[in-house]
């Protein structure tokens, strides 16, 4: 402290000496007002941390027809490699805090048999490709869940486990069926439930708990149990509706309304129609009635069956809880090639511009049909 005072005394004396030697201003010269010397610490303006948030991206039906398996064998040089099929959407999938796929078909063991419609059985390498693309979880309740009975459920979930993809919608054991799927997305606990309207060809559940059949009360019970287990947000994935119908059915709208009226469900994602369906906001929450096909190669393509959307939502924690503050849709298209490739039409890619324009225009009209655009629904600018 003494050194500081001595230093200041020396400086002060020097300033007085300089002032004494300076010439006085002329009588007619304006006087100069010298502000007193002050030492201040300038602090930056206060800033507030942004509220907690996370993004979730969900995509449509993964429907593996034989032509896609043939393409995977060609891509792998004799091995089955589906990675290039999904590569076009990898950038979008990998940037999401939580990326969700819908695996509509069961996966067989490594030696097959591999089958298409009506009793699907896809190669297990599909799960590997989904993991490499960036998916964190897959929902598995669909009308094809029991195409190959309990054995098909077990081989599907085994393949997903090996690939490191978590899942919900079907189960190998009763305990697994009762265990909620809760993932962390940017530090937030997000739960998922998965249900289907029924099962094909009169197949029955080997056990009633092996897959979830759609019922509003059952969905709400599962969602509430998931929140009791610690989930802050719950997403319901529903396999429902009518194939090749772009308008949601009255039943879809009624189910969505009842689910979103309950605080246990925060977002509804739909599948099964194989065409894109609208987005809508009900009770302040979003429902995407149908995301179309993510990948498929129908024997008779319709144009609409090759179109889909990736739904992206940004959840933010507000005073009254979590809400999807923004909703986006990213158009996709299965380029039938050859080679067959999934394309993200929201990016500037090399593709037939006329076909891309047709797909984007049709998707825009359908997705916005229920006034979702007026609630803040957006599509990224293509570029």
UniProtKB/TrEMBL annotation:
Keyword terms: Signal
Positions of the Capsule synthesis protein CapA domain: 55-298
CDD domains: MPP_CapA (cd07381)
PROSITE patterns: PROKAR_LIPOPROTEIN
UniProt key word Cell inner membrane: no
Superkingdom of the source species: Bacteria
Gene3D superfamilies named among the record's database cross-references: 3.60.21.10
TM segment ranges: none
SMART domains, per the entry: PGA_cap
Signal peptide start and end residues: 1-22
InterPro entries assigned to the protein according to its UniProt record, in alphabetical order: Capsule_synth_CapA (IPR019079), CW_Biosynth-Accessory (IPR052169), Metallo-depent_PP-like (IPR029052)
Annotated PANTHER family: PGA BIOSYNTHESIS PROTEIN CAPA, POLYGLUTAMINE SYNTHESIS ACCESSORY PROTEIN RV0574C-RELATED
Family assignment from sequence similarity: Belongs to the CapA family.
Protein name in UniProt: Poly-gamma-glutamate biosynthesis protein
Organism: Actinophytocola xanthii
